[in-house]
Amino acid sequence: MADKDPTSGHSMFGLNDAPTRRVTSPGEATASPQPQPGAPQYVLVQQAPPSVSTSGSGKALPWLVAVLAVLAIANLALVIMVRSQFSDYTTKQADTMNLITRRLDSSDERYAQLRGQFQVTSEKLGLTQQELGRAHALAAEVQKQQETAVAQLNQAIAQKASAEEVNKLQADSNQKIGGLSTDLAGTKQDLANTKSEFTNALTGTKGELNGAIARTHDELVALAHKGDRDYFEFTLPNKKAQQKLGTVTLELEKTNPSRNVFSVYLYFDDKKTERSNKAMNEPVFFYVQGASTALELVVNKLGKDSVSGYLSTPKGFFPNTTNVLGQRPGA
Questions:
Q1: Which CATH class is domain 217-327?
Q2: Domain ranges in the chain?
């Protein structure tokens, strides 16, 4: 039986066993002796360390540069937009200041005109405040009497007075109030008459002011003989031309012959004011420090880039300047 199994003996002595593999470290492999001829040989293979890939970082760099460029362009656009908005805001503020200045100049001119008209009217009419004060006093007296009468009636009712006493008090009150009402009505009529006279005088004065315009040199001489004012002629032959009359300097800004309007600068009291788009033969009033009434500027000749006219002042306001009568003695 043993002879039939040729491998039984080998198995007993381990001849049929598979050779055992032994893994050695690199140091041991170096120090191990050379294998015997015919013995199985084992080779230890070490895996190479993984290499670091640089392809990802190489692709991200262009994207980073592009993002930075976009941010730089956006910042530049934002700066340009902010500067544009600031410039627009500055321009609007400058335009607003110019508009306010022109409105102030116009208000000064209107105030000068009204003050001149009122002064002329007041001198002609000679109004006082006595009638107005009397009217206010009568109104206050009527109100006081009414309050007193109401208080007496309330007191009588509270004391349960008889009907006769109440009627008597009421009759007395009505009599007093009626007398005051009559006085107040008369004063009201007086005020109405005074108002009518004032309106008529103001209308007449306005007509005199509008009519007292000299359109020629001869008319100006005649006007100088009539009034208590001095008249000084001027001529501005071109744009930016200046002429000094007393303490006032005139400068021509522009003209528009098709519309018969002009614009000038006035220099007085250490300031510069503009009178723009004024019509020919339209009086321009303005006040100068020390003048008792307004000064009056009139342009009665208007050409292309040239104007002529006169300046009217209170009598003797420019004592060292020759007026129109001095230019033509005996006229």
A1: mainly beta
A2: 127-211, 217-327
